[in-house]
Amino acid sequence: MTDRPTAPTRVPRLSYFFPAHNEEANLEPLVEEALATLPAIAETFEIVIVDDGSRDATPAIADRLAAAHPEVRAVHTPT
């Protein structure tokens, strides 16, 4: 008799959030990777981008990603 590894159990809900300050080059690839990975980890999930007063295109990219994906929210903190 051999022991077979069991598939990990997905959690019911998960919130994945990260701060983003002047991350225009990294934001979209990070969100796309999370959108591809999180369904294997959680039954339901949200991705929260917290724009921390960016002065580049980060706020606009965050808003575009949130508009394109219902799992993504953009929060903007004042500078």
Give the secondary structure arrangement, pairings included.
Elements: E1 11-20, H1 27-37, E2 42-51, H2 58-68, E3 72-76
Parallel strand pairs: 1-2, 2-3
Explain how this protein is built.
The chain is α/β, with parallel strands linked by helices. The chain has helices at 27-37, 58-68; strands at residues 11-20, 42-51, 72-76. Strands 1-2-3 form a 3-stranded parallel β-sheet. It is elongated. The protein starts with 10 loop residues before the first strand and ends with a strand.
Brief characterization of the structure:
28% of the residues lie in helices and 32% in strands.
> What is the alpha-carbon Rg in Å?
16 Å
Task: Tell me roughly what share of residues is in helical segments.
Answer: 25-40%
General form: elongated
Give the topology string: H per helix, E per strand: EHEHE
Going by helix content, strand content and strand pairing, the class is alpha/beta
Adjacency order of strands in the biggest sheet: 1-2-3
Separation of the first and last Cα atoms: 62 Å
Outline the biggest β-sheet: 3 strands, parallel
Our estimate of the beta-strand percent is: 25-35%
Report the count of strand segments: 3
Poorly predicted runs are none
